[in-house]
Structure formats: C-alpha cells, structure tokens
Fold:
Amino acid sequence: MTWSRVLLLAVPLAMLAAALGAGPVVVLALSALALIPLAALIGEATEELASRTGPLVGGLLNATLGNAAELIIALAGIRAGLLDLVKASITGSILGNLLLVLGLSLLVGGWRHGIQRFSRQRAAVMATMTILSLIAMGIPSLFSHTIAVHHPEAVETMSLGVAGLMLALYGLSVLYALRAHEPFAVHTPTHTRWSLYQALGVLVAATIGVVGMSELLVHALEPALHALGLTEFFVGIILIPLVGNVAEHLVAVQMAAENQMDLSLEIAVGSSLQIALLVAPILVFASLALGQPMDLVFHPLELVAMMMAGAIAAFIALDGETNWLEGTQLLAVWGMLGIAFFFV
Amino acid sequence: MTWSRVLLLAVPLAMLAAALGAGPVVVLALSALALIPLAALIGEATEELASRTGPLVGGLLNATLGNAAELIIALAGIRAGLLDLVKASITGSILGNLLLVLGLSLLVGGWRHGIQRFSRQRAAVMATMTILSLIAMGIPSLFSHTIAVHHPEAVETMSLGVAGLMLALYGLSVLYALRAHEPFAVHTPTHTRWSLYQALGVLVAATIGVVGMSELLVHALEPALHALGLTEFFVGIILIPLVGNVAEHLVAVQMAAENQMDLSLEIAVGSSLQIALLVAPILVFASLALGQPMDLVFHPLELVAMMMAGAIAAFIALDGETNWLEGTQLLAVWGMLGIAFFFV
Amino acid sequence: MTWSRVLLLAVPLAMLAAALGAGPVVVLALSALALIPLAALIGEATEELASRTGPLVGGLLNATLGNAAELIIALAGIRAGLLDLVKASITGSILGNLLLVLGLSLLVGGWRHGIQRFSRQRAAVMATMTILSLIAMGIPSLFSHTIAVHHPEAVETMSLGVAGLMLALYGLSVLYALRAHEPFAVHTPTHTRWSLYQALGVLVAATIGVVGMSELLVHALEPALHALGLTEFFVGIILIPLVGNVAEHLVAVQMAAENQMDLSLEIAVGSSLQIALLVAPILVFASLALGQPMDLVFHPLELVAMMMAGAIAAFIALDGETNWLEGTQLLAVWGMLGIAFFFV
Structure:
C-alpha cells in the first residue's frame, strides 16, 4: 500500500490545524486521513516482524498488533465517553469486512477472471465460526431488547460474561490452529523489505502517530458532528472502520484481482472473526478498567445488519464460487445500510 | 397451459355481470378467473415472440412482457389507491414462487422420480442473489420499523433510493448474463406454434383483456371485501399472485414432473428475483408518477415470511437434491402463512 | 448407559423424602435425578422391542415410546397448569439436541479424530426438514407477536391448526421413509441383551416409575422455585430436557467418539425433528383434552434461539465436516442462552 504514504502529509497538517485552532471539521478530516497510512504502517511493520518468527509468535503478533490502530482509536473514544461510537465501530468493522471488502473483492476479481472458484472447506469452517461468533455477540442485545426491562443490572454482567467467553473461544481457536498446524492469523505476503530495527522503528513511530491522531480525532468529533449534522453512530459505522482497519484489508481486493480467492475470503472473513472474538471483548474489559463500562448491547438495526452480513458471507462460502454480480450486490447492501444508519 | 383456455369464458361473463349490476363478489370472482388465462396467453405470446429473436431482445421481452399481467393489475390497484394490496401482491408473488410453485414442483417431481438431483452451481448463484435482493428490498422496512419514528419523511426517499438501486442491479444482472453468454430470463419450451402475426395479435388482445379485467377486479374489490370479511392484505398476498403470475409459472411444476429440476428451480427462483429487482421498483416509480406514492415498507410478518422463504430456497438450492417430503413442507409453510395473513 | 443405573437409587430416596415431608428442593432434586435412569431404561427397552420387529413397527415404537418419558413429564406439567414450563421444555429439548448434544459430539469426536467428515446428503435433507419444521412451529408465535392484538381468539385456533399440520407432516415423513426404504427413526445399536418378557417388564416398570417421579417433581416444583429464586421458564429450558430426553441422546456423543459422525448428526438432528413434529403437537392436543389448552406461542427469545440453533445445525450439515472448535462454539452459545433464560 505504498500509495497511501502520500497521506502521511496529513499528520503534520492535522497537528498544525489543531494548533492554529482550525474548525473541528478540518481537524477531523485531516486526522482521519492521517490515520489511514499510519494504520497501514503498523500493519506492514507487524507483517515484517511476524515473518521473522515462528507461526505461534507471528500469529499472535499479527492478531494483536494487526488490530492495534483500531484498538487505540476505540480506547480514545472510550476515554472520551463516546461509547455509541465505539460500539458502532465494532459493527462497522464487521460490516466493512463482510460487505465492502468482500464485495469489492468479488467485483474486481470476478470482472477480471469471470466466475472464481475456491476451496469450500476452509471457507465454510470460517463462515460457520463467524456466524457462531456473531450469535454469541448478539445474545446480550437480544437479552436486553426482550427481557432486560425487568433486569437492567444484568445486562452489564452478561456483557462481561460474553466478553470473557469470546476471549476463551479466541484462545481455543489459537489452540485449534496450533494442533491442526494451520496459521491462525493470515500472513499476507509483504512486498517491502525492512531490517528488524527499521520494522521496530516504524512500529513504534506509527503507534505514537496513531495515539496522537486518535486524540485529535476524538476531541474534534463532537463539535464536528454538530457542525455537519451527523450522528456519532454513523461516524462509528462508516468512518472509523475505514480509517482504522478496512484500508489495510484492501489487500483482500488485491488477492482477488490476482485470482487468489481462498486468500481473499480468508482475509475478509478472518478479520471479522478477529473483531468479534478479540477486539470486542478487549474493549469491553478495557472500558471497565477506564471507568466507562461499555456493554455489548447493539441497536436492533446493527444486530440485524451483522446477522445478515454473516449469513450472506456463509452462503457465498458454502456456494464455492463467486461472480462480480454478487460483488455489486454486496456493495449495494453495504451502501443501503450506510444510508439507513445515517438516520439512526 | 391449454386447459386454462376454458377459463376465457369468464371474460364475457365478468363483463356481463358488471353490466347487469351483479354483486361485487360475483364480479370479483369472474374477473379473477378471467385473468388466469389472459395472463397465460400474454406469457405464451411473449415466448413465441422471444423464440424468434436473439438472446438479448428475447430476454428483455420475456422479462418485461412476462410480468405484464401482474404489472397491469398492480397499476390498476395503485390508481385506485389500494397501496397495501399492491405491496402485499409483491410479497405474495415471491412467497407464491418460492413456497407454492417450488413446493408443488418438489412434491410432483419427487413423488414420480424419488430423490431428484440438480446442479448446485447455478441454483446456488441464483439463491444467493435472491437472498441479497430480498435483504436490499427489506432495508426500508427495517429502517421504518426501528428508526423512522424520528424521520418519517426519510422512508419515502429511502424507498425511491432502494428502488433505483434494484433497477441498477437488474441492469447489471442483464449485463452479467450477456458477458457470461447465459440467458438472463428463462425461456420455457413452448408447445404451441403461432405465426408472428398470430402471436402479436394474441399479445395485443390479451393485454387489452387484462387491462379491462383488472379495472373490473379493482373496482369490485372494496365492496366485495366488505361483503366477504376479507382484508385487502389477504387478497394481495394470496389471490392477486395466483391470477397474475403464479399460474403461469406452474410450468415449473411441469418441468419437475419431467425430472428437469434445474429448469424447474430456475423458473421458481428466477421469477422471485424478477419480482424483487424489476417489478417492485417499477411499481414504486409508477406510483410516484400516478400521484399515489408507494413506499417499500412491508408488514413485519411479510418481511419475516419473505426472508424465511428466501432462506428455505437457498438451503434447498445448496443442498443439491430434493424429495417430495420437502415439497409438502414448503406447501405447509405457505398454507400456514396464508392463514396467518388472513388475520392481519 | 449402564453407568446411569446407579441413579436408580434416587427413586426410593425421592419417595422417602416426599413421605417424610422433606423440603421441596430436596424432592425436586431427587425426583429429577431419578428420572434420568428411568428415561434411559424406557429408551433401552424400546430399542430391544424395536429390534425384534420390522422397520415400520420398530420405527413407530421408537418414535412414540422413545419420547415417552418426556411426554409423561410434560403431561404432568400440563395437568398442574404449568404451561410455560411445558412450552419451555419443548424449546429446551430442541436447543439441547442442536446445541448441547451436537456441541459435545463435535468436541469429543473432533478432539479425538481431528476434522471429521460425513455424508452431506442425508444431513442436508434432515437439516432442511428441521428448519422447515421450526418455521412452521414458529408461525403462531410470529402471528401472536405481530398481529394477534386484534384477534387474540385466533391464536389458540391457529396453534391447533399448526399442531394438526405438524402431525400430518410427521405422518408424511413416515410414509416417505417407508417408500424410500429408509429407517424413519434411528435405531441406535443396543449393547444389552434382554428377553422379550424382560424388555416388556422393564418398559412397564420404568414407565410407572416415570409417572410417579413426574408427579413428585411437578408438585415440588413451584415451592422449590420460590425457595431457589428460579423461574418456571428456566427449569423448563434447562432441567426438564436434561432429565427427560437429552441424557438418552448422549448416545450421539458416543457415536461421535467412535467417528461415526453420520449417525451422531442423525440422532441430534432427528431428535429435534421428532420433538417439533410429534411431541409438540401431541402436547397441544393433550392439553386441550386435559382442559388446560396450551397454545404454541413462544417467548421471542425462545423463537430466536430455536431459529438460530436450526440455522447453525443446517450450516454445519451443509458444510460436510466438523471440528472440535465448532463444538466449543455450540456449547458456548448453549451456555450463553442458558444464562439469558435465567433472567426471563
């Protein structure tokens, strides 16, 4: 993603704008732009480090640092009390991976290569795991919307329980991958070549950059939303995932363009799985530690959208072949949901 | 469907009944009966014309004229302000194709031939597209039921947006079929043999007949419903699809009886796709032009029923084989939904 | 399940406790424990009898007597007016089979044998039938929650209609199995060897025992729930299925441990099918005969949980292979639902 390096120019511009007291919309736009290349750099540095280690350490590095940018932005949001934003960004990451990234992959790949085939086996296992994870993640919401009127205090407890369970399932999935001698996090092929010290340096610098830009973004957010007439919710669903996570996973689109659909699907579906089983529970526990307890109760529309996206991905995975028309339909569903969330 | 010709006798009888001022129930029943053979004749004439053209023109003819009877009835309904009836007829067509037609096909075919197999490939692609289309079509309803209390004005806008998107997806599916050298509308084999002028004459005469009978039906509808204690909703779900569309697609049952399950599934699933991506958006735009703007907000029970029917069809398509027991279950679900809609 | 014989000791202990006027919690616990081996004995005696008959009589014996324990407990509940408990026990049996039994099977089998494969064909047919059955069973609830405010009297009628329909579908599935020369109830291999008279004697004695213990359990239930702070609902979802039905079906886990996944899936999915198509409608009609009419309206959370469990089982069946990680996820979903139902 060398093209994204140009966007690094937004880092000093965002700092300058904040220092000069520019309008919050300008600061928001610049810090969001700046986060895209910084998140990509963390990803690349992690890949470089992971490629020098064994599968266990490399997988753990990828899983934790690969989501670092998103986690840092979300933690800044939690500290600022923007819990709806953070929860929406979890939904948005999952929708972004299963609809936007997968849709673009199918469209680009299918347009170039016609009908694309892939091994149903691994795809089906990952899809089943994704659906099970989304169902587990949806239980506190179901509980809250149907029952909790009589037990509001139980929602937070149940969210913590589900979060603990999801971390346990994540741990089990690592154990499973080790027993089966499968990589449990996808190593995307890296094109750059850095020395160990260069990689570590890039990692540290980019992380510092993400921390700084997240703070700018979070503080500019509320006044900017007022000025633009947008909701916390919409920004969480659409904007945060785009800057924090999805940009990196556009690698999936590149893989599809090279007709490597197995790898492409694995990135899109595997990332959603990591968001549900690793990122979401970490945020629940971190929110407790930060004194801003966040539950796992999602808006009904978020819940339905996530279940739909999971079911769609599962049908496509069980199908065993894709075409560009399915890609346009995934993009259309993503676009329509974006418009619906605009009004929430 | 030569047997249906007998029903043409209902055309003069309906006109006579209306002229003599017979009760609305009699006029409703006769005009409904008359529409069955007229719709079938439009379908046959279209097939005849389509068989003389290339795949593009033939496909377009089939897609537009093949749904002509349904569109004409729906437009008469919109002009008379019966928007619930028209929306219910969209739901009813989809349920009729995916549950009634498919159920009868599986029952008749499976009873004769035992377990029937078909190519999972094309069936799975069509099923995935159907589910994606139903999800897209369901978004304004989801939006309306969960959010729109604060933005009622947004529902109509969103319905128009979704309708435009669906037409665009339909256009893309035509483009896809042309690129893949696949027929994008199913040509069912025709048994009659007409000259070009005979076919055109039948087409014009049957269309005029459908227009006239639709007017009789729509005007007799409200007093007849009062007399019978039925709702607009029930008639839209069950009666209109039976006379306007589903009867024609009983060809699917015939194909199943001849053990051509690929063709049978393609008709049942493909027709639902055409209703969702072509008929529904045309009606939304036509309703705007007729000054009776119709949104795409369906009753929760309609929504759930359509999603269920789509999921069932997808599971059957991914399964790769069918038996008559599944057929009876599809019919049972259709029957139970019919009873439920009776009370809406 | 010879190990369960030890639990027969709970039979005299429960009677003693009830006679001595012990606390209701003690009576409840002892009678519940006593039901486990008694239900298992009815199952074993039925298998013995079924193995001496042809497939039709044997299948009918298995289907009716195999669910005898559950039916007897449920009838005692209906007589005592505990309708929520009985309906919850239907949900709980289905969830127990599709999540707990299947989850344990996948975990134990997959841990021992790695990835386990099975014939997708029969599994997919059964999964499709399960989903169709659950949808049919869910229609009165959907109806009740979305429409019935205006027609409360229609809910009971509709429940009776659906129950009749389900019995008809069950009859058709028997006919289907006979025509296809397939067993319509699974004969699990029996390890014990009894004479005909021994088998009949065990059947009669165990049935008497189940009747007696059910009465003790039902009468101790309400005071015990007060003492423990549990709901009728929770006991119905978790406890009743465990003592009445699921324990027997742990045979499915044993089959999975022996790498016979086809048989294991057939037991877990087939049992759910029998609960939906045979046990539930029998209870509806029996409740009417007992003057305590029970409808088929389930709590929204029950409905969603059953649909989820059905969809999960279908995805696993269509997938064609399983691993222990999927097993842990099924168990996690079952556990989380258990916690949610605790608060209903």
About this structure: The interface with chain B takes residues 114-115, 299-301, 304, 308, 311-312, 315-316, 318-321, 323-326, 328-330, 332-333, 335-337, 339-340, 343-344 of chain A (CB under 8 Å).
